[in-house]
Amino acid sequence: MADHEGRAARARLLTAFVPLTIGAALAFAVPVAAHADDGRGGSVGDCAGRVGFVCLSVHDRTTTKPSAGKKPRPKDRTGTKPVEVCVVERLQPQPPASDPVWNGHSPKDGAIYLRMCNWQAVGAAAVGAASAAPQIFWAAAPPAVTVDPLQLAHEAVDKMKLTGPDIASPRADGVYAVGVPMWLWADRAPTTYGPNSASATAGGVTVTATARVTKIVWSMGDGKTVTCTSAGTPYKASLGKRPSPDCGHVYRKSSKDEKNNAYHVAATSTWSVDWQVTGAGGENGQFTETRSSQLDVVIGQVKVLN
């Protein structure tokens, strides 16, 4: 009888917990199986076994996205990219000592906790479907907040609002000709070329990330690509028809047969991000992200006058 009452109490607690964590719009099946911990405080089954997510208590929540190499959940119908939020809370009141959820442990040795992880749409009022069933588990001490510093590094990059190259040449309204060297360059700014720095904090851990462009790959629309390891050199009229010393291209055919009579140019910058956990001996690492800019450019045929 006591075990039955304990399970019924857990079911009521789980139902009551939903509005505190993921909203009444989310419906899910209440689990009957208990998930025991390893005795060290919540290291088993964090975020339903997922790796690369920040697990935070209900009083210290944040949205996260997968670390590099992890496949993100597909976008929903609104085009919003869901993120996963995990919540850990101590059950109140605690189940009876006879409840099997204790897994042989005594209430004197620890407590029973609830963990739930759910996908939520950033900026949307609706909440997506739960990624895993809620877990009830025993732990000797309150589960520590598990923070993936790489996650925080990505959040820091989001704050930077990085964009694609600020293309200065070619210009959409420029006049260019077949066989004449075209100089390719982009203007430099913190959000378009770097360096750019920002920090993110969660669970007492602070990560500072610095991003800078290491290369720009120009897809010229004629089947050719140009890779530049700099922003390019600005052109001056006094240089005449000289080719760019570090980033340029020569079109060999006019664009009259292309869509809109223009070549579609795309410039993709690779941002190298260095991050480090604040403090002596802090963990550090590096990853890359890309951003693109596009424009159409008209290339005319040079007419020879006799």
SSE topology:
Layout: H1 2-21, E1 55-57, E2 82-90, E3 111-121, E4 127-130, E5 135-139, H2 149-160, E6 166-169, E7 176-177, E8 182-183, E9 185-187, E10 196-202, E11 205-219, E12 225-228, E13 248-249, E14 263-277, E15 284-297, E16 299-300
Taken as a percent bin, the fraction of beta residues is 25-35%
Rg measurement, Å: 28 Å
Average of per-residue pLDDT values: 73
- The chain-level structural class is mainly beta
Sequence of secondary-structure elements: HEEEEEHEEEEEEEEEEE
Question: Would you mind describing this structure in some detail?
Answer:
- With 306 residues, this protein is mostly beta strands.
- The chain has two domains: 2-146, no CATH class; 153-300, no CATH class.
- It has helices spanning 2-21, 149-160, and strands at residues 55-57, 82-90, 111-121, 127-130, 135-139, 166-169, 176-177, 182-183, 185-187, 196-202, 205-219, 225-228, 248-249, 263-277, 284-297, 299-300.
- The strands form five sheets. Strands 1, 2, 3, 4 and 5 form a five-stranded mixed β-sheet that branches. Strands 10, 11, 12, 14 and 15 form a five-stranded antiparallel β-sheet that branches. The chain has a two-stranded antiparallel sheet with strand order 6-9.
- The radius of gyration is 28 Å and the shape is elongated.
- The termini are far apart.
Question: What does this entry show, briefly?
Answer:
With 306 residues, the protein is mostly beta strands. The chain is built from 2 helices and 16 strands. A hairpin with a 6-residue loop joins strand 14 and strand 15.
